[in-house]
Structures are given as C-alpha cells and as structure tokens.
Amino acid sequence: MGCVLILAAAAVAVAVVLALRLWLLLHSQVVVPRKSVCLMAVAGSGGHTTELLRLLEHLSSAYSPRHYVIADTDDLSAQKIHSFERNRADRDPGTTIPEHHIHRIPRSREVQQPWLSTALTTLHAAWLSFPLTYRVRPDVVLCNGPGTCVPICASALLLGILGIKKVTIVYVESVCRVEHLSLSGRILHPISDYFLVQWPALKKKYPKSVYLGRIV
Length: 216
Description:
By secondary structure, this protein is α/β, with parallel strands linked by helices. Helix content is about 45%, strand content about 15%. Helix 4 crosses helix 5. The chain starts with a helix and ends in a 5-residue tail after the last strand. The mean pLDDT is about 85.
C-alpha cells in the first residue's frame, strides 16, 4: 500500500511539473535576437502548399536553413518546393545553392479515412515526427492547416516541455476558412504562439488570434 501511495505521489508531482513547464512555455514572450532562423515549414496537398509558398515569398533570406515537411506520398508538393527554391535562388545572386531540405512523414489522415483509424495513423505520424523535430531543432515551425502539421507542432511543443529547446509555433489559417476553423486549427489554436486568421469573423470568435487581413 505504501509503495502505491509513493508511486501515485511521484506521478502527481511529475504531472504538476510538466503542467507548470507547459504554462511557462505558452506564456513566455522572451525574444532572442538571431542572425539566422532555422525554419520548419509544413506543407500539404491541395492548396496548402501553394498558400504556404506564398507566405514564404515574403520572408527574408535570414530564415535559413528551411526544412520542409510533407506527407510521404505527396510528390506534387515536393516538386513545387524545389521549383520555388530554384526560383528564389535565381532572384538572389548571392545564393548559389538553395539551403533547403525536404523531410517526409506518414500522413496523419487520408481523405475520407474513418476517424477511428485516424487516431492510429496520427499516433504513427507523431512517433516519427519527434525524432525529426529533435534532429532539426527549428527556431520556428510555420504551418497552415494540413493534417501533417499536428504531430509536428506537438513534437515542437514537447521539445520545450522537456527543456530541449523553445520552438515558436506560427499557425496561419487558410484563407478558405471564413467563419469556422479547420480541424487542425481547432487542435493547434491553444498551443500556437502566433495564430493568424484571414477573416474578421474568425478574429471575433477567437480573440487570441491575429488578424492582418488576407496575407496569401
């Protein structure tokens, strides 16, 4: 009986410490100046990759290296990313070799996949996402809604909870979302450092969000 109580007390203590650390991470506003910012951008099939690359067009070369994460079956996004980076290098004479990397992880959810099996595929994606995020250790994770971004953002948050590195999570909701957040948006809204929406109706519903008008 005594051993059970000790184990229970230890589990409660660990839970309290993790909860406190999570609270500190979500409320920390410390900004450390950097010469370069390691960026991890999560792309997705359909219009997600197109919108993401439009966002990246406005970022300076200080956001380097750039690590793109795509689903393992998403060859079209890989082609778009390579084309974008080549064009970027052509516009910048000082850049001879585009410093970017593409990483693949399993999809969290396929189109029309049953919700019961989605939980299993998401866990599988999360299992592979943490080693990737730990290896890259980005300064910023940028995403705009594909299901692939959920395990990546969760892994980035875990890096901070474990005291490895504080990663800034920036979520930009798709311009297609006018009155309601996407499923990824609803999941990641509480843990994002910056949550951007592109319609005033969403800003009213989610006061924590940032509304800058249409940005893509």
